[in-house]
Amino acid sequence: MEKTSRDRLGKSKTFLAREDVRAKAPLAAQFEDCTQAIRQLHTALNAELWASKEEVSLEQQEAEAKKKALRTLVDRCLARLIAWGHDTGAVSRLLDHSLRRASKPRSSALTLLKEFSIPASERREAQELRDILGLGSQDSDLNPEKFLAEAEEIINDLFDLQPTLLDPFDDDDLTPIPDAHQTEAFDRQYAQKAFPAAAPSLVDRLLAANRRRRQNIQSLKEASKASLEDEAESSEAAVASQVPHQGQSDQKPRHGLALSRIRGYRRTSAPSGSEAGASRTAPSTIGKETFWSNDIIHEKESLTSAASTGGVQAVELQLEPPGLPVDTKVKDSIPFQCQYCRIEVPLELDKDTMTQEDWIAHFYMDLQPYTCTFEECSRAHKLFGIKQDWFQHELDYHRTRQAWYCAKAECRTEFETWALFQQHLKSEHPDIRTDGPDLRALAQAWQRLSLQPQTSAQRQCPLCGVPYKDDAPAEWRDHIAHHLEQFALLAIGEDEASPTSEDELIDRNDFVETYVDDQNERYAAPSVPNQAPVTEEPAGGEDLEADQPMPGDEDAEDTVEPVWLNVPERNHEFMGRDNDLQHLHEFISQSGSICVVSGRGGIGKTATAIEYARRYEQTFSGIIWIEAENPNGLADRYNMIGTDIFGLAVEGQDPVSFFMNVRAKLGGWERRWLLIFDNVEAWDHVSKYIPRNLPKTRGSVLITTRKQSLVRTDTQTLKRVLHRIELDPLTPEEAGQFLICSINPKVFLDDAPKHADYDLAVQIGELVERLPLALIMIAGYCKVSRATLEDFHEIWEEKTAFRAKQTQRKKSVVIEGGLDSSIDLLWDIGISELSVPARNLLEILAFLDPENIQKDLLVGDHTEEFLEFLNSTEAALYKRMIRQLSGRKLIDVKTNEGGAESYRIHRLLQTKIVIDIGAQLKFDSAMTKATRLVRKRFPKSPAIQAPAPQNWKRCKEYMPHVFGLLRAFKHAQRDFHGFEQTEEMADLFYDAGFFIWDSQANVHDGLAFLDAAENVLDSEDVEEDPKSPRRADILCMSGLLLNGMGCERRAECLDKLQRALDIRKHVYDAAAPAYTRDQDVLLQNAACDFAILLLNEYKFDEASVIFEDCLRHYKKWDTEDKIPFEYSKYYYNMGIVHMCKERLDEALKFLQHSVELAEAAFGKEGQYWDNYFMLACCVLQSGDFQRALGMHLETLKAKLEQQGKHSKGTILSTYAVGEIEYSERCIDLATASSWTDEALGRARLHLARLYKRQAVNLQDAEEHERKAMEALDRYSTHAPRWVNDINEPIMTFDDLMPTDEGRYTGNMLLKVLWGRGRAEKTVTFVWHMEGSEVTVPTGL
Asked: How far lies 472's CA from each of 166, 416, 461, 475, 512, in Å?
């Protein structure tokens, strides 16, 4: 043991003494430094222990105890450090090898190791080290406890870093490959012929892997070439070392596949004998055909992948790994430097021999030929260099069988396939539909991981389609691995140099056509008799996601013509970013991935995304671009996927259901698609638009954002699919080239460094921190102003000096706007030379949607003096203004397919302008102009607040600009006290809020507009009468929006509608008896809305008085057959009153009539099924359970067909059915929808009780009950005391629901109500209407 340690220590010293090895394996060398430093300290402490034999004093005993504690700490540090070294491979060159392309974790590990290691040049012998640590002298200043404490802390950090070191991510820049598209085209053709069963996404993955391999090899070739040139200059031995040895040739094939690489086609034999020199460094022969030996047949299990078992014959190995590049018989030939990783091999420090098998194992570690073959893999980009690691990944993540489980108490049976499960349902449970529109949700609900052992069912190779058996895993592992090795080997041996003999070559296309066809013919798999057709089953160990395509979805695309949606035109001035684009493609080329490109404002995120979409457009057959900087209206832009690509009709669809339908369609799209969200401000803005089953789709998502921490990886799935790229500024050379070529279009990129102003261009680039946006603005300024770079430099210096003398106001602007100081100064320079009209136009643009400002919005027949410069008759002036703004890169001009012109302005520039004009007291003027322009385009809402779907299209077109005005309004409220507010602003904000209510869009946005409108009316500039009709309009809309936001807003909702009703009464009474029909309609609608809220408060008698008065007015208007909707409302509401007052016969009669009137008004759609739902609830209260269940099922079917499964009405009907399957489906849908928390809590509690009643899924039951009770704790305070006193959670949840949104789907609450109603008290309630007073008894 002692001898072995001494031997190893001697070899380590030899290793450390070689500075060239220290440079090439720094982690191993540094680790050796650390261990030797700790060992020396350990030796010194133990020597001190054995030196202390004589009797000692008490003080000496205390000192000795202290030293013993130090020895224990040293032992612990040494043991942990050695354990870390063995775990990570730092004890050999393995860690250097695994981190060879991962610079960030490599740098982190190296930094930690250097922090406590003692450099070799500063080492002391054991006795000297004892003196330094104060073990032999009391005069030392060094604290040994502190030294060891720091060492232990560093070791802890090393262990924290260990998971990253064991699974690193390659982040080094790779060398671009010339004519990469040609090699990739060949690879694709080869894959399609050799792997006929491979899915397109798997082929894409293989191509991306070979692309990375070629880039790695190209980078190493260049490094190797430089290294050999240096050696040749310094030593003749280096020249001798490059003499070809056995199996090598100095001839290189041109861009083509050498015949010598394919066994059976080789026409010349390898030279015999060995001519290898004695150099320790093997020459780089990457790209030489000599590595393709046809004389080596590998029989070692860990190295071979050829398999022939069970009558299934795999294609035999044709391409061979390279032979051992040195002659091991030559003295000192081991170790040598590997030309594929630039690290000495063997990797073990104490190994001085290497066999052919050892070399091939190392070669595959470098090549990393293995990648996951499952389409839905979330780590598809991961390459493996060890076969068993790859296979273990597939076992852990994918090769676990899924099954469908019938949870019925009488069955409890598992089925292997969906088809078998369907047959079971049809034969044993005919009451469960297996062909309806909700088939996919049904399949999802019953799918589980199989609890049964794997069977010997036939399977197929994912690449060639050859069947194999589950009970021979080693054989089919090797079979698939052989394919992967063969494909990876295509990346080796390619070079552009010409060969000496044409007969050594074969054309790529000829190779594909002849070789692959020949192999298929020779090794055609025998047919398997009675083989069941292979059905596509979900792979992996996870349950199906909500949007995963399931049986019944038949949306296969028949065309290969690419689909583009809103993708911006390519910027032909774009340059640089090649490495960023390559890294981006490495991630995005893998299906199911998300890549976040982040960087500061002006770094070029959007331009990089556009360039990627255009440069790699052939990778995708569908690319979708969504501008996400403004979250408002994002749903409309996303829904264009449904209307423009999938041809979905949006009319009559519930907005939430439509959006989720679009998301499901996108998730199941068979094309290879890319979804790009540009300029995202928050993850919550876009996360709901990404298909929930993204890892299992053929799509990828690209996000650009200024926030590096945009996405928090709080789930394992997200961690696996998410990648991040942080954009850096351009290099000094790129910045200089860009300025020279942009200002001088005739100068080519390669000639830019020769230009006289190149050095100045580089200097100016440094002034603006090489930000692309700043460079674009400088080039635009110079071109429009006809200024030279020297002129610009002088202006910059003047502006900088002037700004330095100003107050700190500018600094606050930079902070508030998130604006880079250099860009802020550039905008000042650009804006300062604008004409007055152009400046006025720019100020207007600052208030509008930055992404799409239509020319038609700005130019028109304006009669206002302040808009005269935008009159359509001033076409020449308008063109000059646009030229000034676009030329200085203050705006971008876009033209759509129809020829319509629009503009884009940077959000940061908008912020700067708003702040500047606010300080200059010009905010009011610009805001007024922008408001007037939008007001002219945005439709006015109907006077009687009736739905107006005919206005939706124009509203959606100009709604983003109203959002822009709202942002400016809020900004002014916060920062510019005393800015002028106008009635026109209030009207515009109200109309926007009405549109949101009408189209059932985002409720929070609607309330924001209505609150702003009310604030304007309350301002000193307007001072609107508190009893004005406009205020009543705003209050009515606010109340209706609040009614759907849950029990927490119930009191606020009631207050809003009470105030609105008071105003309506005031207006009506003031006009009587000459009131108009519109005034009467508005009053009755307000009264009816308010009375419905009284039902929520159990004030049935007060509500019935109002409903009866509404009926009197309906009768004045017309008869039932003329205005059936109004009468339907009356019978519906009064039916609820009768039901709650225990008058069930009247209730059933009234509700039935309301259903008939709704059908007369609308047919069997919308309101008809809402009324029918309430009728079913009343039937349940009457005790007819079976009829009620049938009615609820009928309602559910209709809502599924008309509204989709994600609408609130559909989810409520699903809950009302009440059985386990439906309750499970209800929770799944509600979790992904906009249902309130209290409604979801009720559904969870109901399902938990069903589980417990049937003694199934008890663990799930406990979890659902826990979440339900958490919701109840949050919201129970909003229920009346008498409800909470009953102490029945389901009843409390029922109370928290609105009356017309599921309060009476159960019968417990009504039974308590009826009991209380029988002991009611009489209270006076006075309803003022047309001079009459009515006194009624009120219950509760």
From this structure: 30, 20, 13, 6, 31
- 1138 token code pair: 């009768």
User: Residue 227's pLDDT band (boundaries 50, 70, 90)?
Assistant: low
Per residue in 1076-1134, pLDDT (tens digit) is 999 999 999 999 999 999 999 999 999 999 999 999 999 999 999 999 999 999 999 99
Give the closest residue to 653 by CA, choosing from 1166, 264, 201, 10. 1166
| 523 within 8 A of 314, measured Cβ to Cβ | yes
If you compute the radius of gyration of the chain from its CA atoms, what whole number of angstroms results? Answer: 38
Q: CA–CA separation, 1077 vs 1079, rounded Å?
A: 5
Residue 531 binned pLDDT confidence (cut-offs 50, 70, 90): very low
The mean pLDDT value of the chain amounts to: 76
Q: Are 1032 and 1013 in contact (CB under 8 A)?
A: no
Question: Could you give the CA distance from residue 1300 to residue 963 in angstroms, rounded to a whole number?
Answer: 32
Neighbours of 379 (CB within 10 A): 18
DSSP 211-237: HHHHHHHHHHHHHHHHHHHHHHHH-HH
- Look at 893 and 229; give whichever has higher pLDDT: 893
Which tokens is 323 given?
A: 């032979």
Query: Each residue of 1279-1332: pLDDT tens digit?
Result: 999 999 888 999 999 999 999 889 999 888 888 888 876 555 433 444 444 333
Going by the DSSP 8-state scheme, the letter that residue 711 receives in this structure is -
* For helices 1050-1071 and 1077-1096, angle between their N-to-C axes, nearest 10 degrees: 150
What are the phi and psi torsion angles at 403 (to 5°)? -150, 165
- Please state which of the ranges 426-435, 512-521, 1052-1061 shows the lowest mean pLDDT: 512-521
Helix (H) or strand (E) holding 166: helix 144-166
Is the Cβ–Cβ distance between 864 and 932 less than 8 Å?
yes
Number of H helices, E strands in the chain: 53, 22
What DSSP string runs through 1087-1129?
Answer: HHHHHHHHHHTT-HHHHHHHHHHHHHHHHHH--TTTSHHHHHH
Instruction: Give the residue-averaged pLDDT of 426-443.
Output: 66
**pLDDT tens track for 988-1037:** 999 999 999 988 888 889 999 999 999 999 888 887 788 899 999 999 99
State CA 1078 to chain mean position distance: 49
Of 1005, 1006, 1029, the C-alpha closest to 1017 is: 1029
**pLDDT at 524 (0 to 100):** 40
C-alpha–C-alpha distance, residues 172 and 215, integer Å = 11
Task: Say how far apart CA 410 and CA 762 lie, in whole Å.
Answer: 79
In sequence order, the 6+-apart residues with CB closer than 8 A to the CB of 1006 are 992, 993, 996, 997, 1037, 1041
At 476, list the tokens.
Answer: 């089919």
Written as one string, the DSSP assignment of 980-1006 is ---HHHHHHHHHHHHHHHHHT--HHHH
C-alpha distances out from residue 877 to 695, 842, 1081, Å: 53, 14, 49
Token code pair at residue 535 = 């059905």
**1184 Cβ neighbours under 8 A, 6+ residues apart:** none
Angle (CA) 216 217 220, round 5° = 90
Q: Give the model's pLDDT for residue 1318.
A: 59
3-state secondary structure of 545: coil
CA proximity to 942, closest of 1147, 1082, 735:
1082
How far apart, in whole angstroms, are the C-alpha atoms of residue 1091 and residue 1335?
16
Q: So what's the pLDDT on residue 47? A: 61
Window from 248-262, 551-565, 1171-1185 with minimum mean pLDDT: 248-262
H or E element in which residue 1326 lies: none
Task: Report how far residue 140's alpha carbon sits from residue 138's, in angstroms, rounded to the nearest whole number.
Answer: 6
